[in-house]
Amino acid sequence: MPEVAEAGPSCSGILVAFDGPESVLAWSAIDDAVMGGLSSSRLVFATEGHADFIGTVSLANNGGFASVRTLPGAYSAPGMLSVRLRVRGDGRRYRLNLRTDDAWDGVSYQAALVPPVGQWGEVVLPIGEFAPRYRGRAVLAPALDPGRIRRLGLMIADRQPGPFRLSIGWLRSEAAALG
Length: 179
What we know:
This protein is mainly beta. Helices cover 0% and strands 46% of the residues. The strands form 2 sheets. Strands 1, 2, 4, 5, 7, 10 and 14 form a 7-stranded antiparallel beta sheet that branches. Strands 3-6-13-8-9-11-12 form a 7-stranded antiparallel beta sheet, with no helix packed on it.
């Protein structure tokens, strides 16, 4: 299970830092409207220097998920052992999605993201916890290769209707410290 963690010895690199309004421009929403649902979401820059993944989950028309993801880019991190996020949650469960191709639809590697409620904290997601999924279902696929990551994404699919807000300061790759 992912855990809220204290900073420890590691080699790390920033995958995304939400430190200015331009930092959210590479992200777009992919919600259940693609299958007739009514959920909606967006990623917005907050003037306090972070991003908010906000929206509303609706179960109408067999919906129930909302997500945002980056355009294809250079997010590869060979040797990455985990992803560390600085986040603040609202009591709901989220998922971090990593994709290794540029396709619009395909396999994504998902890990559960349970942020601290109402306060900032760091959550560590080990690479081994990212499971291959296609349209929400588990599939057989090779293990995630961190050196091939092309897209990042955030998702809520907890089947609970209503508004949500996940605040994100940054996402960082982590590898074991050398020497």
